[in-house]
From TrEMBL:
Entry-linked InterPro entries: DUF7919
Domain (DUF7919): residue spans on this chain: 1-65
Protein name: DUF7919 domain-containing protein
Amino acid sequence: MHMCVYCIDPDGKLANHPEHIYSFSSTGDIILVFPNGDRFEMPDMVLHYVFDHQWLPPQEFIVDVLTFEAESVETERFQTKGLVVSKPIDMKIGYLQGEFPTGNVTEEFKVRLVKIIEKAAADYPWMVAPKKKEKSNGMA
């Protein structure tokens, strides 16, 4: 399991971020294949990065998410630990290497991305579905 490095304090402990709504841990990667042939690989905690850290995905990814319905996107899910064979992709996104650009995405983008990631979780029943964290008052 991988923990978000932005959620770890300088002492190496998990920092308390009650404002975060998505899980800060990952168990693997997702590949999204859009009808135009674009393939993007990302950690399965991509919703955490977008919603909780205001990560700004590459423009090509934003356009694809806004252009295609979730049902038309093919998904692949795999565990990254011990992965020997590389998967063919166009772009790896959302990894904590190099720049981590931040900015605002539209609410429409967020809604559509959630639908696509939920579809990936449904396509792979063994995948832990991305869940909103429970707030202290029981509301998500």
